[in-house]
Amino acid sequence: MSFRPLALGLTGIVALFGLIQLVPYGRQHANPPAGASPAWDSPRTLELARRACFDCHSNETKWPWYASIAPISWRIQRHVDEGRAKLNLTAFDAASRKMTHAAGEASEEVTKGEMPLSDYLLMHAEARLTATEKQELARGLDATFAAFGEGRGGAAGGAADSVRAGSGERGEAGESEEEERREHGEHGH
């Protein structure tokens, strides 16, 4: 039995692994500065959110050592980029329809077990919340983001009061909605 094909295959895999390390995506681990934060309903909600949400949904990401090894780094970077864009808990933009919509649905995502993501939980034991902690976090997120929830008045009416300013005011809601449409390629639909 010849081990040559096996050795060539393993050499190829090692070479490919080495080559993908040269791809720069997933290696920028500088956290942007914080901006506005929600007015948390309690220190406990903030504590639970820090444990279960902040690595992907804030500018306070703790980058583990394996976040620099491709292809894992690519997945982690994508999760953080998407998480921050959808709902950033340290740069909360009350004028962004997309962000306020995500804020209004945050407790439901936790309750259904959709957040934190299961692959994140594999490497982050601290983010594995007990059933009681999930309920606490969901209630706290509901209270924190009450102004943005479905059927609770939407993003208008008290939304500005629910955010602690960190970087100044945005334009009026109409301007924000127009900006949101441009971001997503919508033209007044």
Name its key features.
mainly alpha; 189 residues; disordered C terminus; two-stranded antiparallel sheet; elongated
Write the layout of secondary structure elements.
Layout (H helix, E strand, L loop, with lengths): L3 H17 L16 E2 L4 H10 L19 H15 L10 H15 L6 H6 L7 H14 L18 E2 L8 H11 L6
Antiparallel strand pairs: 1-2
Helix pairs in contact: 2-6, 4-6
Description:
This protein is mostly helical and 189 residues long. The protein has one domain. It has 7 helices and 2 strands. The protein has a two-stranded antiparallel sheet. Helix 2 packs across helix 6 and helix 4 runs antiparallel to helix 6. The longest helix has 17 residues. The C terminus is likely disordered.
What's the rounded overall pLDDT mean? 80
Strands of the widest sheet, in order across it, are 1-2
- Structural domains: how many: 1
Helix and strand run = HEHHHHHEH
Q: Give the biggest beta sheet.
A: 2 strands, antiparallel
How many helices? The count is 7
What level of helicity do the residues show? 40-55%
For the record, give the distance between the C-alpha atoms at the N and C termini, rounded to a whole number.
Answer: 66 Å
DSSP strand content = under 5%
Q: Cα-atom Rg, whole angstroms?
A: 20 Å
Number of beta-strand segments: 2
Shape: elongated
Q: pLDDT under 50 segments (min length 5)? A: 151-189
The helix/strand class is mainly alpha
